[in-house]
Amino acid sequence: MFSSKLRTAAFALLALGALRCRRASAIDHEAATSVSTPRQPASTPPPAPVGAPAIVRVPAGLLEQTVPPELSGIAYSATLGRFLVVSDDTGRKDRGTWHAPWLFAMSANGDLDPDPLSIAGIDRLNDAESLTAGPDGTFFLATSHSPDHKGRTSGERAMLLHLALSGRSLRVLARADLRDVGGKALLAAAGLDEDGRLDVEGIAYRDGDLFVGLKSPLTSDGKATVMRLSHVVDALRKGSAPGAWSVLARVRLSVAAPGGDVLEGISDLTFLPDGSLLVLANSPKTMPHDGGGSVWRVPRPIETTAPVLVRRFPGLKPEGATPSPDGKRILVVFDRDQAEPMFAWIDVPG
Length: 350
Fold this sequence. Notes:
About 15% of the residues lie in helices and about 40% in strands.
């Protein structure tokens, strides 16, 4: 009997030891897992709600590298899960990085990342005005092609860039001066005064073609011009493509201002899911101020349909717009010169 009780006690001790080992092993595994696999947030914070414009939050670390961003163009990067934005000016003179070839990344809630994204293949980027997603995860970026305050239009202000994204940097696939593509001046191709003040502020890509919206000059009857650059990748690769340019539409963008109705030019373009065209607009330089820019929708057929006013933004210059990844809303960014940039979500019109 004694030996039987002894055997029972021994088995109990062995079982208890095995249980303790399993518990210790489980604790060690949990600890190892928590170290090797950081905890992820339960869910991604939702974008800011549709409504009034809000301040874009610029980290102090970014402001150590660049002047306050003047947001003038935006496109979504599915690879990064961020919105890429361009600014009129980048870098800092006191750091020797003035007009550095940089873009910035922003969350749906208006938070800029602390470090810019560099562009390999160019030394400087001056007066970047528009950005749009292109084919196969690439992007197109356009500068204004307009003269600076001294009346000069340098090469760094007259570029259309085709860019490929790799990690958190981009490289130039092709570069062109829009005035030279197609073998003749852009204003001549647009049927506009060749001595007029060219200002390119909006581009959009669709089905192999690039669409270019002009801030100025307007037509003699006050309309803004949207140009089509057919087969844009081939046109940039060849450097000259006769017949590449054509006029898509001319739109009259007239708004009420304190001194009477004023005319606006195009500050950005983006296509909506239904094929209509969203146009951002504000007053061209040297023309009467509009008191705040506006958003328009041009229904199909875009070539012949009059634009419909969607919304005014008193006191603000809407300069960049892009649909959300699900196509249900539009993210708009505002250029406020050296003041804090702003953004707003709006519903897709129509």
